[in-house]
Amino acid sequence: MSLVDVHNEWDPLEEIIIGTAAGARVPRADRSVFAVEYAGDYDSQEQIPSGAYPDRVLKETEEELDILAAELTKLGVTVRRPGARDNAALITTPDWETDGFHDYCPRDGLLAVGDTVIETPMALRARFLEPLAYKDILLEYFNSGARWLSAPKPRLTDASYDPQAPAGERLTDVEPVFDAANVLRFGTDLLYLVSDSGNELGARWLQSAVGDTYTVHPCRKLYASTHVDSTIVPLRPGLVLVNPSRVNDANMPDFLRSWETLTCPDLVDIGFTGDKPHCSVWIGMNLLVVRPDLAVVDRRQTALIKLLEKHGMNVLPLQLTHSRTLGGGFHCATLDVRRTGSLETYRF
Fold it and tell me: Which residues are part of the catalytic machinery?
């Protein structure tokens, strides 16, 4: 029986991968980093930080990830963790050379759909070999009967990036490139964010990979920067949390227009370490749904917690102190690979 079996973002959770902060670092500034992360600083390359994160950040984050793992285990969820890697090691191709990033966000490079895990062709060169962190886990899933696919490995030449283009147009269409976190699962409907971390060719490749059972919905002019899970957050069938600074009547995905929407309230700015954060204050809405009536939410986001409770959700309040520093909240730092339930189409 396949250990991978997941159809949406809300069915009761059975198995999950939680990332690690061990060895996390900021990769050297190259054309991909500017296009995806720091386009506004393209003309002042010396201002971009690089190197290992402070030990305090990594230690505190690893402790908080351990707490998350323990709390989910108490709820009966099987938790998997990657081993440590040397992210300072050089990555070299015939076209470029860089160092690594981190293995904190399994959501970014692995997409689980049905009984399949897809290694996605990520936009940052520094993440080129990131799936290796999960190789042993993926081998186990494959041996259990799961399908294991890898998108065509992108070359990520300079032609793939245009840091001086408008936001949302900095990743060119010379080859399929997208992060797994550009995708949300709504049963047979897959939302695909076209942004600086996911191009049009990536959406076409994904549709070809998942076949006619699924419909990939490329969403344009929704959020220009990177991932979708601090913009739209499915809570349960028919109910979705939206970011009011990004989502409006004009750009709401058509297949979600019949869903009830909750507008995320103003969030607490939790701050960050270093010169520049990897994400905005909206990372506070990057929650993990454990089941339709329970979500893991940052304990500091009290207004959001009250809103969710008002709409029938219980909250497990935990904390990732450095989520803005490392670039990921509870959804980013996890990858759900098995939930109870079956494949359905959700149209209301």
Answer: 179, 227, 332
